[in-house]
Every structure is written in C-alpha cells, then in structure tokens.
Amino acid sequence: MNRQIFQNFQKMILNCTPCIIILLLILISITPFHVPQHINVIPLFALVSIFHWAVYKPELLPPYAVFFIGLLQDMLQGMPAGVNTIVFLLVYGLVTSQNRFFFKKSFLVIWIGCGIILAASIILIWLLMCALNTSFIDPLAVCFEYAVTLGFYPGLAWCLLRWQRLFLSHV
Fold this sequence. Notes:
Blueprint: H1 2-29, E1 33-35, E2 39-41, H2 45-56, H3 63-77, H4 83-97, H5 99-102, H6 107-133, H7 139-167
Antiparallel strand pairs: 1-2
C-alpha cells in the first residue's frame, strides 16, 4: 500500500517537472541582463522551455499549464496580463501541431526552428506592448533579447534534454 502511494506520488512529481522547470526559469529570467547603452534584456527562457517540452514531451505540458505560466510571467515582469499568455499558447499550439516535422531532427534543425519561432514571438510581444502602451518601444532592446535568448538555447536545451533522459525517459 505505502509503496503504491509512493510510486503514484513519484510519478505525479515527475509529470510536473516540465512546469516546475519552467517556473524556475521564469524566476531566473526576471533578473535582467545589462548590456551596453543601459538596455535591460530579459531572456525568454520560459518560451524556449515551452518550445522544448512541446517538441519532446507535449503530454507533460498541458495547455492550461502554459496559460498559467504565461500569466505568471506577465505578473512578474509587470507586463499587461495576457501578453506572454497569448504568445506562449500560440507557440505551444504551433509546435505541437508541427510535432511530426521536429520528430527525430538534428539539433541544428531544431535550433533553427526555435530561432524562427522565437523571432516571431518576440516581434509579436513587441507589437503587443507597443499597442498596449500606446508608445514606441526601442527595437534595439528586442534585438538584444532575441540574441541573448537564442544564444542561451544550446546550453538550456542540453540541460533540458539531460533532465528528460535521466528522469523522464520512462514517463
């Protein structure tokens, strides 16, 4: 009886690890990186992680979790509610619908795919923020945000893949 309860609890925790990892990445990413000319850049680690889990283990990241993750990131960054939520859900839906394309592709192909989706996502966030703030936001900060996020992708993807292979291969 106790063994069965422990196994069920362990399976539940393992199934929640993508959400837990994304929440930790949000906490890490809300600390802005300072780049030249006093531009604060906040890398979109959560978006990269959502992309990763949507490619490799979409069954462990349900859409309602993506919705709440987006709301949480909006609140922690002080953005209007729904900006990241919309973008995260669009990315999740696009990537899960194209799962057959990404299946068993090389790292380079997946990185390029992530780069394209990340560029579209950052542009959409920028457009939404310009519209909601009724002011023009410096596109240089958006370019730095894209470059920093894409630059962190290989290391972050390696860590997520290691975690997946070590702990989630049988889930």
